[in-house]
Design a protein that fits this description.
Layout (H helix, E strand, L loop, with lengths): L3 E5 L2 E5 L9 H10 L1 H9 L5 E2 H7 L5 H13 L3 E6 L5 E6 L1 H31 L1
Antiparallel strand pairs: 1-2, 3-5, 4-5
Length: about 130
Protein backbone atom coordinates (compact mmCIF):
# COMPACT_ATOMS: atom_id res chain seq x y z
CA UNK A 1 0.00 0.00 0.00
CA UNK A 2 1.02 3.63 -0.29
CA UNK A 3 1.51 6.01 2.54
CA UNK A 4 -1.24 5.79 5.14
CA UNK A 5 -2.07 8.33 7.84
CA UNK A 6 -2.87 6.92 11.27
CA UNK A 7 -3.97 8.56 14.48
CA UNK A 8 -1.37 7.68 17.12
CA UNK A 9 -1.80 9.20 20.58
CA UNK A 10 -3.35 12.34 19.16
CA UNK A 11 -0.64 12.80 16.48
CA UNK A 12 -0.98 11.95 12.82
CA UNK A 13 1.77 9.48 11.90
CA UNK A 14 2.71 8.62 8.32
CA UNK A 15 3.33 4.99 7.50
CA UNK A 16 5.25 4.12 4.38
CA UNK A 17 4.00 1.56 1.94
CA UNK A 18 5.67 -1.76 1.32
CA UNK A 19 7.46 -1.54 -2.04
CA UNK A 20 7.87 -5.31 -1.94
CA UNK A 21 4.08 -5.62 -2.21
CA UNK A 22 3.06 -5.81 -5.89
CA UNK A 23 0.02 -3.59 -5.18
CA UNK A 24 2.01 -0.77 -3.54
CA UNK A 25 1.64 2.51 -5.51
CA UNK A 26 5.19 3.47 -4.55
CA UNK A 27 6.36 0.69 -6.85
CA UNK A 28 5.01 2.52 -9.88
CA UNK A 29 6.92 5.66 -8.93
CA UNK A 30 10.05 3.58 -8.37
CA UNK A 31 9.60 2.10 -11.84
CA UNK A 32 9.09 5.54 -13.42
CA UNK A 33 12.09 7.30 -11.87
CA UNK A 34 14.58 4.44 -12.16
CA UNK A 35 14.14 3.58 -15.81
CA UNK A 36 17.29 4.26 -17.80
CA UNK A 37 15.64 7.02 -19.83
CA UNK A 38 13.98 8.68 -16.83
CA UNK A 39 17.29 8.86 -14.96
CA UNK A 40 18.97 10.43 -17.98
CA UNK A 41 16.11 12.89 -18.56
CA UNK A 42 15.99 13.99 -14.93
CA UNK A 43 19.75 14.38 -14.60
CA UNK A 44 19.85 16.03 -18.03
CA UNK A 45 17.45 18.71 -16.77
CA UNK A 46 19.26 19.38 -13.48
CA UNK A 47 21.21 22.37 -14.86
CA UNK A 48 18.09 24.10 -16.13
CA UNK A 49 15.24 23.99 -18.64
CA UNK A 50 15.77 22.47 -22.08
CA UNK A 51 13.75 22.30 -25.23
CA UNK A 52 12.81 18.85 -26.50
CA UNK A 53 15.39 18.84 -29.30
CA UNK A 54 18.23 19.90 -26.99
CA UNK A 55 17.27 17.23 -24.48
CA UNK A 56 17.17 14.58 -27.21
CA UNK A 57 20.63 15.61 -28.44
CA UNK A 58 21.97 15.47 -24.88
CA UNK A 59 20.70 11.90 -24.35
CA UNK A 60 22.45 9.72 -26.90
CA UNK A 61 20.45 6.81 -28.26
CA UNK A 62 16.96 7.79 -27.09
CA UNK A 63 14.26 7.59 -29.73
CA UNK A 64 11.71 10.36 -30.19
CA UNK A 65 8.94 8.01 -29.07
CA UNK A 66 10.76 6.91 -25.90
CA UNK A 67 11.73 10.46 -24.96
CA UNK A 68 8.16 11.71 -25.45
CA UNK A 69 6.77 8.81 -23.41
CA UNK A 70 9.31 9.32 -20.62
CA UNK A 71 8.67 13.06 -20.45
CA UNK A 72 4.90 12.48 -20.37
CA UNK A 73 5.25 9.98 -17.50
CA UNK A 74 7.57 12.25 -15.52
CA UNK A 75 5.22 15.19 -16.07
CA UNK A 76 2.22 13.13 -14.92
CA UNK A 77 4.10 12.10 -11.76
CA UNK A 78 5.03 15.72 -11.01
CA UNK A 79 8.79 15.51 -11.61
CA UNK A 80 8.91 17.53 -14.84
CA UNK A 81 7.14 20.73 -15.87
CA UNK A 82 6.24 21.25 -19.53
CA UNK A 83 5.87 24.83 -20.72
CA UNK A 84 4.45 25.65 -24.12
CA UNK A 85 5.00 29.11 -25.57
CA UNK A 86 2.32 29.76 -28.20
CA UNK A 87 4.52 30.77 -31.10
CA UNK A 88 4.62 29.43 -34.63
CA UNK A 89 5.81 26.71 -34.27
CA UNK A 90 5.12 26.31 -30.52
CA UNK A 91 8.18 26.31 -28.28
CA UNK A 92 8.09 23.53 -25.68
CA UNK A 93 10.49 23.67 -22.75
CA UNK A 94 10.96 21.08 -20.01
CA UNK A 95 12.25 21.76 -16.51
CA UNK A 96 12.39 20.01 -13.16
CA UNK A 97 9.76 20.70 -10.54
CA UNK A 98 10.75 20.88 -6.87
CA UNK A 99 9.99 17.18 -6.60
CA UNK A 100 12.09 16.52 -9.67
CA UNK A 101 15.00 18.51 -8.29
CA UNK A 102 14.85 16.58 -5.04
CA UNK A 103 14.90 13.12 -6.63
CA UNK A 104 17.56 14.15 -9.15
CA UNK A 105 20.05 14.75 -6.35
CA UNK A 106 19.77 11.06 -5.50
CA UNK A 107 19.86 9.90 -9.12
CA UNK A 108 22.93 12.03 -9.86
CA UNK A 109 24.57 10.39 -6.84
CA UNK A 110 23.75 7.00 -8.30
CA UNK A 111 25.32 7.98 -11.63
CA UNK A 112 28.41 9.25 -9.78
CA UNK A 113 28.65 5.94 -7.92
CA UNK A 114 28.33 4.00 -11.19
CA UNK A 115 31.04 6.15 -12.78
CA UNK A 116 33.36 5.48 -9.85
CA UNK A 117 32.70 1.74 -9.71
CA UNK A 118 32.42 0.83 -13.40
CA UNK A 119 35.94 -0.68 -13.39
CA UNK A 120 34.88 -2.99 -10.54
CA UNK A 121 31.75 -4.03 -12.43
CA UNK A 122 33.73 -4.61 -15.61
CA UNK A 123 36.28 -6.77 -13.72
CA UNK A 124 33.44 -8.79 -12.18
CA UNK A 125 31.87 -9.31 -15.60
CA UNK A 126 35.22 -10.33 -17.13
CA UNK A 127 35.85 -12.78 -14.30
CA UNK A 128 32.42 -14.34 -14.88
CA UNK A 129 33.05 -14.81 -18.61
Amino acid sequence: MGEVSMQVTGVMARVRGDVFDSQCPERGVLDHITSKWAVLVLVGLRDGPLRYSALRRAIGGVSEKMLAQTLRTLETDGFVHREVVPTAPPQVTYSLTGLGQEVTVHLAGLLDWIGTHIPDVQRARAARD
